[in-house]
UniProtKB/TrEMBL annotation, chain A:
Membrane topology per record: Peripheral membrane protein
Alphabetical UniProt keywords: ATP-binding, Nucleotide-binding, Transport
An example Gene Ontology molecular-function term: ATP binding
Keyword Transport tagged: yes
Organism: Oricola cellulosilytica
Domain of life: Bacteria
Family matches, as SMART domains: AAA
Location within or outside the cell: Cell inner membrane
Protein name: ATP-binding cassette domain-containing protein
Region (Disordered) location: 304-327
InterPro entries on file: AAA+_ATPase, ABC_transp_ATP-bind, ABC_transporter-like_ATP-bd, ABC_transporter-like_CS, Oligopep_ABC_C, P-loop_NTPase
Family: Belongs to the ABC transporter superfamily.
GO cellular component: plasma membrane
């Protein structure tokens, strides 16, 4: 593709379980992520939304090299990421870092902030003591924390502060791409804004690229250049953030937008009893959204809809046979 | 919102955080002592245990007689408060005229020595094996845990007896045997904690930060699994003393004339009706020491359990 692409995910797939038992019976398998193809361009923020269990986090873990895709390819800057993660996770970790959902749980309770932040400097960058000292104060400054916090323990911090430490740790290795796995879901709304602002500032200051995973639509809308909507392990719609939120084409995206609580909206659109995700051990033959879809037709139950662009919009792709037209 | 501000305010008003590692240790110790002190039984246990340790260390100064010196003129003398007791032998003498008090004082050395050696041996082996089982999982885990299950399936004292019978009686062999039967508990405990810690976010984040496997195991995970291990270690200490006494009583542990408490019991068995004090005092010594250590272990658990602490 064009040379602006930093991370390219091509038909990535992750199956859990499977294989055979010792008696030859088949073990059940779950497709956590299926046939996901996304390109992340240098300097952009790609938002990934979807309800819990749709495979967002699995995708994130694969990008960071904590999990290996069972099919497809993930290339980072031209290097095969899966192969590299298996051989030398450290080399990959210098370029791709991860920010966790639960800020306090992601910090070792027995280590001071200094030890925690020094770990990537020692293991990944192999810096000497004076350079580490300098880098530490840079990092603390970057996330607006006072340098004297370095000698405290994680339990002495509030959620927002802890998350900023988590971000500082991800920054420490001077990565090109940071995967943010629900970085603000565990925080209060006012603290969310503060953390999001810091993230935004850091992106410009260090020329970062973000993959921002969240189930909170308003957060994703405010930070993302492009948005991918995931459902049941697949991408159902992808496109520029603004157009997706203004004119969703896939009925699932529409449903997500309608069911999100927003100020001034009295009654939320809620679904009836059969709104669960399909059984992952026994996926439906056609579109996974069939059972919940208001626009379903016969073909949806037989065939899987391909991810296609709208006739007049090249950027916005949706996997639906009967997409909503420019509503 | 409000509580976060309050927290930040509280963090701000704290005196500037301690800067050296030593000051940090001091603060942690003070905190530990604060919680340990809440449990009165534990403090009493600690006090008694300290006294036992002091007695063991100062044995040559405290003991009025040699523990092995036999006095043919004073066989089975009763303690001072009974008729015929004298200050020369405050707790009486045994069947061959040895001073029971002196033997008990020297016996404290053996008991503590047994405890320390057995616990060190079983903890080091148990923790390393458990860490490997929990961290790597899969068939390594299965293999290790099945072996541990086999060891645990035997009645522990019986297994120790068999081991000593194979190795030959003696204090050292008894300690090895006891360490071997106590070690599966440490393996299981370590494995269980490692399993629960292994997938925590801070471990994953250490992986992303480039920590090696060994570092993950011993530097990241192990310190977070220590609290239950310390408690189990204190309880194993008392178990070791008890089992060593049992082996001594059965003639498979320390050999006479070693003034080991269990062995003393065994030697005095035939005089239990004629001279009950010969049996009573070693038994009491074992009881008090084991009880003190168990109480202390309870207090340690309360002080080290973060769940009880944070409320």
């Amino acid at each position: 593709m064009d040379d602006g692409v930093l991370l390219s995910i091509d038909g990535a797939e992750r199956v859990f379980g499977g294989g055979r038992t010792i008696f030859g019976g088949k073990k059940p398998a779950v497709h956590a992520v299926q046939d996901v193809t996304i390109d992340v361009r240098k300097g952009e923020t790609l938002g990934i939304v979807g309800e819990s269990g749709c495979g967002k986090s699995t995708l994130a873990r694969m990008i960071v090299g904590l999990d290996v895709p069972t099919g497809g390819r993930i290339t980072f800057d031209g290097r095969d990421l899966a192969a590299e993660a298996g051989k030398d996770l450290r080399r990959l970790s210098r370029d791709v870092q991860y920010v966790f959902q639960d800020p306090v749980a992601s910090l070792n309770p027995r280590k001071t902030i200094r030890t925690i932040l020094e770990a990537p400097l020692i293991h990944l960058l192999r810096l000497g003591k004076p350079e580490r000292e300098k880098r530490l104060s840079e990092l603390m400054d970057a996330v607006n924390l006072a340098p004297e916090f370095l000698d405290r323990y994680p339990h002495e911090f509030s959620g927002g502060q802890a998350q900023r430490i988590g971000i500082a740790r991800a920054l420490a290795a001077d990565p090109k791409l940071i995967v943010l796995d629900e970085p603000v879901s565990a925080l209060d709304v006012s603290v969310q804004a503060q953390v999001l602002n810091i993230l935004d500032g850091l992106k410009e200051r260090f020329g970062l690229t973000y993959v921002f995973i969240s189930h909170d639509l308003s957060v994703v809308e405010s930070v993302s250049d492009r948005v991918a909507v995931m459902y049941f392990g697949r991408i159902v719609e992808i496109g520029a953030g603004r157009s997706i939120f203004r004119t969703p084409r896939h009925p699932y995206t529409h449903l997500l937008l309608e069911s999100a609580p927003a100020p001034g909206r009295k009654s939320l659109l809620s679904e009836d009893a059969d709104t669960e995700l399909p059984d992952p051990y026994n996926p439906p033959p056609g579109c996974a959204f069939y059972a919940r879809c208001p626009r379903r037709t016969d073909i949806c139950n037989r065939q899987e809809p391909p991810l296609e662009a709208a006739p007049h919009q090249e950027e916005q792709l949706a996997a639906c046979f009967n997409p909503r037209e420019g509503a | 919102m409000v509580h976060i501000e309050a927290q930040e305010a509280a963090a701000g008003t704290k005196p500037a955080g301690p800067t050296t590692a030593w000051a940090m240790r001091g603060a942690m110790l003070r905190e530990f002592w604060f919680y340990f002190r809440q449990n009165r039984g534990a403090v009493i246990g600690l006090a008694i245990f300290t006294i036992v340790v002091l007695i063991a260390v100062l044995a040559p100064l405290l003991a009025p007689h040699s523990p092995t010196l036999q006095n043919r003129d004073a066989l089975l003398l009763p303690p001072i408060w009974a008729d015929g007791g004298s200050w020369t032998y405050a707790l009486g003498t045994d069947a061959v005229g040895r001073d029971i008090l002196s033997r008990l004082i020297y016996g404290a050395r053996f008991s503590l020595f047994i405890g320390v050696v057995v616990v060190t041996l079983s903890v080091t082996v148990g923790v390393v094996v458990g860490l490997i089982a929990g961290f790597f999982g899969g068939w390594i885990d299965t293999a290790i845990m099945r072996v541990m299950d086999v060891i645990l399936a035997f009645p522990s004292l019986l297994l120790a007896l068999v081991l000593v019978a194979i190795l030959g009686p003696g204090l050292m062999n008894a300690m090895i045997a006891i360490a071997l039967i106590l070690q599966p508990h440490f393996v299981r405990l370590t494995r269980a904690s490692v399993l629960s810690e292994r997938n925590r976010e801070y471990v994953i984040s250490a992986r992303v930060a480039g920590a090696s496997k060994l570092r993950l195991m011993f530097v990241t995970i192990l310190p977070n699994c220590l609290a239950p291990l310390i408690v189990q270690a204190t309880l194993a200490f008392s178990n070791a003393i008890l089992d060593a006494a049992a082996l001594g009583f059965l003639g498979m542990g320390a050999q006479p004339p070693t003034p080991e408490w269990g062995t003393m019991l065994a030697e005095a068995r035939e005089f239990i009706l004629r001279a009950p004090w010969v049996v009573t005092f070693p038994g009491l010594a074992i009881l008090v020491t084991v009880l003190a250590i168990n109480l202390m272990g309870d207090g340690l658990r309360d002080a080290l359990d973060p769940k009880l602490k944070q409320s």
